[in-house]
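Model it.
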Amino acid sequence: MKNVLIINTHLRYPESSEGNLNKALVETATEVFESNDLKVKTTKIEDDYDPNEEMEKHLWADLVILQTPVNWMSAPWIYKKYADELFNAGLFSKKMVADDGRTRKDPSKQYGSGGVLQGKKFMFCATWNAPEEAFNDESQIFFEGKAPKDVFFSVNLGYKFCGMEILPDFSCFDVLKNPQFDKYIEDYKKHLQALL
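Modeled.
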């Protein structure tokens, strides 16, 4: 692994969500990777982007990290727009996806096997208001035993459709009612070091 792309999906809401934790996590990841001689590029979706340039960044990257707050159980709406434009550029150019994988000549080929980004990896790092104990526990009434990766299933699938391997995610929990900024940063460093 030599090249890392970090995408910050934070959408600022003045006086309620300024994005400081997500920004710090992007900076932490950048420091970890650059101190290990990896090259890092970043995109902050809120600051605008060009879909074709984003596609080229994805082609350049060995690892793509989506840094995101959780807004109503998903990434902010600006990420969905970004993903639609990015993946469409990758499909129409055939640089990220050749097709959906199926052919009339070979019906054994499965849907979702037409991605061309094999060997590349994807993970998300999410900041949640939900506490950690709300996940992976069937007695919890809201997530009903689901893990963060289950909530972000569709985000992971977009990258899997392109042929990328999905890595274990990282989450910061209870960021509004019980923030533990220093612990989040230290735990994230350990998570990233394990990827090297």
